[in-house]
């Protein structure tokens, strides 16, 4: 049997996951929890620290203990840190994206749903307008949303939950080597993807995504692709 605080963590985590304590709600005090669980307050405090590090509770000094509202950024931060501590390069992230996004685009074309595909053109238009206006934060965000909309078009909530925390990786690998160069943002290169999706042609969608990513084979990107993932954060900061 594990430490007593680990057992308390397991009990409280189960209660939170099953929404016995609703997101955003105030939990009982540490003293009340200790009494109801039959443990000491120090055990409860240890458990709360663990639950806080998991992003499940927020301990607000002077106000109490609150159930955290689910947030993607906690998982995204953990995944980003894991990538930063590896030797993975931007080129390797892009290669993974090609495999993932070409497969997802083919499936989105197969199940073609005009309603869920409609946002694609809006994101694409705002992305291109942002590039032309040299509004890099808008261009950057709409570019991201364009690619995420392909995932959302599948109408698979579980897949969205699994993949959307990868946004940070998508964001970083989508930044051109020279972020303020309009040419490197690839205006027009996304149109074949949208056309293939709207036509419901899976193989055309798969090919269009792979063709879109061929920009990574150009000389500026080949050099940029060798950049370790951990070294591109300063570029990202400049786009926010």
From TrEMBL:
The UniProt record lists the keyword Oxidoreductase: no
Keywords: DNA-binding, Pyruvate, Transcription, Transcription regulation
Signal peptide residues on this chain, from the entry's feature table: none
Molecular-function annotations in GO: DNA binding; DNA-binding transcription factor activity
Keyword rRNA-binding included in the entry's annotation: no
Highest rank taxon of the organism: Bacteria
Alphabetized Pfam families for the sequence: FCD (PF07729), GntR (PF00392)
Domain annotation HTH gntR-type: ranges: 2-70
Protein name per Swiss-Prot or TrEMBL: GntR domain protein
């Amino acid at each position: 049997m594990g430490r007593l605080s680990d057992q308390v963590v397991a009990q409280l985590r189960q209660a939170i996951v099953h929404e016995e304590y609703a997101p955003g709600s105030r939990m009982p005090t540490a003293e009340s929890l200790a009494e109801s669980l039959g443990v000491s307050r120090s055990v409860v405090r240890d458990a709360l620290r663990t639950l806080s590090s998991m992003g499940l509770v927020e301990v607000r000094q002077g106000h109490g203990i609150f159930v955290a509202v689910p947030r993607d950024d906690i998982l995204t931060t953990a995944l980003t840190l894991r990538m930063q501590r590896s030797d993975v390069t931007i080129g390797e992230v892009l290669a993974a994206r090609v495999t993932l996004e070409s497969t997802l685009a083919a499936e989105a074309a197969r199940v073609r749903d005009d309603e869920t595909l409609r946002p694609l053109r809006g994101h694409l238009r705002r992305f291109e307008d942002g590039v032309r206006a040299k509004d890099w934060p808008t261009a950057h965000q709409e570019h991201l949303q364009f690619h995420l909309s392909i995932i959302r078009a599948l109408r698979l909530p579980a897949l969205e939950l699994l993949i959307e925390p990868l946004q940070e990786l998508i964001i970083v690998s989508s930044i051109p080597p020279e972020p303020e160069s309009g040419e490197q943002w690839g205006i027009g290169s996304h149109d074949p993807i949208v056309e293939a999706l709207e036509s419901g042609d899976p193989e055309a969608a798969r090919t269009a995504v792979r063709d879109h990513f061929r920009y990574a084979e150009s000389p500026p990107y080949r050099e940029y692709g060798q950049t370790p993932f951990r070294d591109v954060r300063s570029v990202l900061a400049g786009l926010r």
